[in-house]
Design goal:
Helix content: 40-55%
CATH topology of the largest domain: Rossmann fold
Bound molecules: arginine
Shape: globular
Largest sheet: 4 strands, antiparallel
Number of domains: 4
Number of helices: 21
Number of strands: 13
Distance between the termini: 39 Å
Strand order of the largest sheet: 1-2-4-3
CATH class of the largest domain: Alpha Beta
Structural class: alpha/beta
CATH superfamily of the largest domain: HUPs
């Protein structure tokens, strides 16, 4: 991962959370206790207690401070505590062990922090105007004439989740689908389809993506000269017959490659015959891509699609610009950008000896367009980790060239949100039985079919059409969630059984947790006339946090804004997943221990209903930020 320059907007801590207040008070107490002797970078080291016996939070600063002051940690802790003024938010601090300071919040303080958060924004007010960023998210990245496979799942699902998270944080998000629609392989398939169409053997109007994939493979085979075979024949003297055979193959391949090169030149010159075929191929590919994305509930549109072809005319001048400003140099006929000053040994190749441009050249043009054209403060790339070196090079080269410089003069933040591979249950790259890449559309079909069975089992009374809609939301949610909930930089194992389980850290579990909340609120209305709108806004009932499960739930709820910001900053959706799972688990424990609708005390009942409603709002918000569909029933 590559975070190269800080944006203008560093995440503000959660404004109202009790830990912020505690943290500030502790620092104040430390300053008071140690005066000028306090190291300038002193940190109260406040952490959530793992064990409720030790209070809600624990301050661990006395350990290192004691050492620095030449006193025992316990003495340091005593000094801090005696200067600590926290009566309004916490019970008197207690010192444990060698010098840990244990802090327990007052229930009223917790309730009032929670009450402040329970507004329209759930503690996430939009960033002030000056801090509102433009974030460009590179996602999906399909290739012309190819089906989307399981690798594109991650680029689409993670990219879309990152876009949604940043949107939810109040920033301006622009998605970019960097469609691989240019270069020799593309010309190769275009040439083949055009030739066959002219011979009446292909009907352009009824062309499908399956057909195209076949043509792509065939064209590639035609061009893949068996040069190695030729060399073997020569070396081992396999005789004139083998020699002739291999030679014709190679000749044919050379011919096919030459035709592809001509086609590329024709495309570059906008020759209408070639362009028409290429556009048709592009249309068929993108239609299938958008359909997959629609089914995945991921926002990838035509407007958000900027193919590599849209950069084609910029590449020659870009390389000239790099050469003229001595950012790049000619090396053995090729043009390279040296990156030693960035600690990267491998230079970035931007033009080959034969004059051809590269994937990296296009991505440099892409950074320039994103930062200087679209105004990106951050450009995030949800792309396979195997492209890490590529992005390190492209980021460094773009900075060296000034293409990442924003209007204000500082560089935009460029980040490769790299992801690992999808593995099968055998721990090897996920493939079909016959060793092919798994088609994304097949995966989606199967997930929905399996979800439909699971939903039918769980709720046999659901009407058939609703069951279908629920199955779609649950099946797709399951696929997305298993992908999002694992640390994106790592590989993960794709398992239908695990992802569709209604228990554990899964999409269905979270969707179901929300469904439970919704059902309680519906019941409150139907059976007791308490409308959920009466639980929010002015005149809302007070919150009473008394039972330990209420407290755990309240503490979990309070973490939402900081978690969402952290997940955005680090581009790590799995943080949000882990959080929602924690919240749903806290809710489950609360619901088991604290009766809601059957509680005789009206004030307690309404407070608990408010906790339900707040949990539901966070779950809904969180699921939406991940790109899962929140459900009312299932
Ligand atoms: N089409 C590329 C591939 O399949 C992914 C594009 C990623 N985005 C980018 N800006 N390079 O590998």
């Amino acid at each position: 991962m590559q975070t190269t320059s800080a944006g203008p907007y560093t995440v503000p801590p959660m404004q109202s959370g009790p830990e912020i207040i505690l943290s500030e008070r502790l620092l104040e107490a430390m300053r008071h206790a140690f005066g000028a002797a306090l190291p300038p970078d002193a940190d109260p080291l406040l952490a959530v207690s793992k064990n409720p016996e030790f209070g809600d939070f624990q301050c661990n600063a006395a350990m290192s401070l004691g050492k620095a002051m030449g006193i025992s940690p316990r003495a340091a802790a005593e000094r801090i505590v005696s200067a600590l003024n926290i009566d309004d938010v916490a019970l008197p601090a207690r010192i444990a062990g060698p010098g840990f300071i244990n802090l327990t919040l007052r229930p009223e303080a917790l309730a009032s922090a929670l009450d402040a958060m329970d507004d329209g924004a759930l503690g996430l007010p939009p960033p002030p105007p000056g801090a509102r960023e433009t974030i460009v998210v590179d996602l999906c990245g399909v290739n012309l004439a190819k089906q989307m496979h399981v690798g594109h799942l991650r680029a689409t699902v993670i990219g879309d989740a990152l876009a949604r998270i940043w949107e939810r944080l109040g920033h301006r998000v622009i998605r970019q689908n960097h469609f691989g629609d240019w270069g020799l392989p593309i010309a190769m398939v275009t040439e083949r389809v055009k030739r066959l169409a002219e011979a009446g053997r292909v009907d352009l109007d009824s062309l499908t993506l399956e057909d195209l994939e076949g043509h792509y493979r065939a064209a590639q085979r035609d061009c893949d000269a068996d040069e190695r075979g030729l060399r073997a024949v020569e070396r081992f003297g396999l005789g004139p017959k083998a020699d002739a055979e291999v030679r014709t193959q190679v000749e044919g391949a050379r011919e096919a490659t030459a035709r592809a090169r001509q086609a590329l030149v024709a495309l570059q010159a906008h020759e209408p015959g070639h362009v028409r075929v290429w556009e048709r191929i592009s249309e068929v590919t993108l239609a299938a891509c958008f359909e997959n994305c629609r089914r995945l509930h991921a926002t990838v549109t035509r407007e958000a699609t900027a193919g590599e072809s849209t950069y084609a005319h910029e590449l020659a001048p870009l390389v000239e610009d790099l050469l003229a400003r001595r950012v790049a140099e000619v090396d053995d006929g090729a043009v390279i950008v040296r990156l030693d000053e960035f600690g990267i040994k491998e230079p970035c190749l931007v033009r080959k000896r034969d004059g051809g441009f590269l994937y990296a050249t296009t991505d440099m043009a892409g950074i320039r367009r994103r930062v200087q054209g679209l105004g990106a403060d951050r450009a995030i790339y949800a792309v396979d980790a195997r492209q890490s070196l590529h992005f390190r090079q492209v980021f460094a080269a773009s900075k060296k060239a000034g293409y990442a410089r924003r209007a204000g003069g500082s560089d935009a933040t460029l980040l490769h949100a790299a992801f690992g591979m999808v593995l099968g249950e055998d721990g090897r790259p996920f493939k079909t039985r016959s060793g092919e890449n798994v088609r994304l559309s097949d995966l989606i079909d199967e997930a929905i079919a399996r979800a439909e069975l699971a939903v039918a089992q769980k709720n046999p009374d659901l009407p058939a059409d609703e069951r279908r809609a629920v199955a779609e939301a649950v099946g797709i949610g399951a696929i997305k969630y298993i992908d999002l909930s694992s640390d994106r930089s790592k590989d993960y194992v794709f398992s239908f059984d695990r992802m569709l389980a209604f228990e554990g850290n899964t999409g269905p579990y979270l969707q179901y947790a929300l469904v439970r909340v919704r059902s309680i609120l519906r019941k409150a209305h139907l059976e007791q006339g308490i409308h959920e709108d009466s639980l929010g806004g002015p005149g809302r009932p007070g919150l009473l946090i008394a039972a330990p499960e209420e407290k755990t739930l309240a503490l979990a709820a309070l973490k939402f804004p900081a978690t969402l910001r952290g997940a955005g900053e680090a581009c790590e959706p799995h943080r949000l997943c882990a959080y929602l799972y924690e919240l749903a688990s806290a809710f489950s424990a609360f619901f088991a221990a604290c009766p809601v609708l059957s509680t005789p005390d009206e004030r307690v009942k309404r407070s608990r209903l408010r906790l339900c409603r707040l949990t539901g709002r966070i779950l809904r918000d969180g699921l939406e930020a991940l790109g899962l569909v929140p459900l009312e029933r299932m």
